[in-house]
């Protein structure tokens, strides 16, 4: 399966994160105020671009990378950066490949990365920066202090987003119990889910870039991004027509909305297939009950789906007796009691959260 340029960049960031031997070697090159051009992989295409130099095939070590960088030419490593295969190599990529870079080293790095699909690292002697070139993308590495500062700002934003998501989710649950949900309520919940997802992904990239320096940040992110209840997919499943809407495609459509357009609740509702026969966001809409039933620990996913499908809506499910619940395959008396008690607890908690 082909990886996207963004996924390839993330994998490369993991290889050059603080705490890795490669990052140690790159930092040594920066401190020594020399430049370097390092190819992170070798195949027939890379070999065809190499001219001159030395085939050495030695184990990778930061000190060796630093010493070899003193020579003119590029250094070629294997894809896992465990071996230094060649040094002092002249790379001759296709000159017709467009590049926005001006320096010879950076132009070569970008063209090689585009032509071969192999990540290339360029260390600038004059600008004192480390730049990654991956599948047409350029990414400049920064010191851990700068990255941590941005990450902490993003983490504070995530905390606010998470608190707001919990509020709108609790409000949606209360409205579902009362059968008073509108398209607007569902769209706001989906909006908040997507905002939390996006800021979480941004912080995850900071964690990746920070390497060993990002362990505490990783724990904080894990705590804040742990799903409390169901996600956007379950909300979509609860309110869209299963005959016309595929949940996976609806989730993808939600994720593709531009950041600037995420404030448009009508756009969100339309993108996930919330059709009610009305154009107004104030149109009433009824949940099937997937989201609330999925929160019952005593009910496996397959059984929860059968419950919802059997009763056809949350209100019918809430009103069902134990004997009526036991008609559903996989629901015995004990599980039926657990479902009744669980739904009652959810109803009480939701209403209390709303009115207190």
How does this structure look, described?
This protein has three domains: 5-141, YojJ-like (1, CATH 3.40.1700; 143-287, Ferritin (Up-down Bundle); 288-356, DNA polymerase, domain 1 (Orthogonal Bundle), CATH 1.10.150. The protein has helices spanning 5-15, 21-31, 44-49, 62-68, 104-116, 144-177, 183-210, 215-225, 232-239, 247-255, 265-271, 290-294, 301-311, 314-319, 322-325, 333-355, and strands spanning 36-40, 50-51, 54-59, 74-77, 83-91, 120-123, 130-134, 137-141. Strands 1, 2, 3, 4, 5, 6, 7 and 8 form an eight-stranded mixed β-sheet that branches. It starts with a helix and ends with a helix. With 356 residues, the chain is an alpha+beta fold.
Number of domains: 3
Q: Order of SSEs, N→C?
A: HHEHEEHEEHEEEHHHHHHHHHHH
Helix content: 40-55%
Known CATH architecture of the largest domain: Up-down Bundle
Gyration radius, to the nearest Å? 27 Å
Question: What quaternary form is this?
Answer: single chain
Instruction: Give the amount of beta strand, in percent.
Output: 5-15%
Query: What fold name stands as the CATH topology of the largest domain?
Result: Ferritin
Structural class: alpha+beta
Q: Report the average pLDDT across residues.
A: 88
Number of strands: 8
- Global shape: elongated
Distance between the termini: 51 Å
CATH class of the largest domain: Mainly Alpha
User: The biggest beta sheet, please?
Assistant: 8 strands, mixed
Uncertain regions spanning at least 5 consecutive residues: none
- Please tally the helical runs, counting DSSP H or I stretches of 4 or more residues: 16
Please name the fourth-level CATH homologous superfamily of the largest domain: DNA integrity scanning linker region
């Amino acid at each position: 399966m082909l990886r996207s340029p963004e996924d390839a960049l993330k994998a490369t960031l993991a290889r050059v994160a603080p705490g890795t031997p490669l990052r140690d070697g790159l930092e040594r090159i920066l401190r020594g105020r020399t430049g370097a051009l390092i190819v992170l992989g070798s195949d027939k295409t890379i070999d065809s671009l190499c001219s001159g130099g030395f085939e050495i095939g030695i184990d990778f070590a930061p000190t060796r990378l630093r010493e070899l960088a003193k020579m003119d030419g590029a250094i070629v490593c294997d894809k896992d950066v465990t071996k230094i295969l060649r040094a002092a190599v002249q790379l001759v990529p296709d000159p017709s490949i467009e590049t926005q870079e001006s320096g010879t080293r950076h132009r070569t790095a970008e063209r090689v990365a585009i032509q071969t699909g192999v990540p290339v690292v360029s260390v600038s002697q004059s600008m004192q920066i480390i730049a990654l070139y991956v599948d047409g993308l350029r990414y400049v590495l920064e010191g851990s202090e700068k990255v941590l500062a941005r990450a902490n700002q993003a983490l504070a934003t995530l905390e606010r987003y998470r608190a707001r998501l919990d509020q709108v989710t609790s409000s949606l649950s209360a409205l579902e119990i009362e059968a008073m949900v509108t398209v607007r309520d569902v769209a706001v919940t989906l909006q908040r889910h997507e905002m939390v997802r996006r800021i979480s992904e941004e912080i995850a990239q900071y964690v990746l870039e920070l390497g060993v320096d990002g362990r505490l940040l990783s724990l904080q992110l894990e705590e804040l991004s742990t799903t409390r209840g169901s996600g956007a997919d379950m909300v979509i499943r609860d309110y869209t027509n299963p005959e016309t809407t595929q949940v996976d495609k609806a989730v993808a459509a939600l994720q593709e909305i531009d950041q600037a357009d995420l404030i448009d609740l009508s756009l969100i509702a339309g993108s996930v297939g919330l059709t009610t026969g009305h154009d107004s966001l104030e149109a009433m809409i009824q949940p099937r009950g997937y989201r609330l039933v999925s929160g019952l620990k005593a009910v496996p996913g397959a059984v929860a789906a059968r419950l919802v499908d059997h009763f056809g809506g949350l209100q019918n499910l809430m009103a069902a007796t134990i004997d009526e619940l036991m008609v559903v395959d996989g629901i015995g008396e004990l599980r039926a009691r657990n479902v009744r008690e669980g739904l009652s607890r959810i109803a009480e908690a939701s209403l209390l959260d709303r009115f207190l």
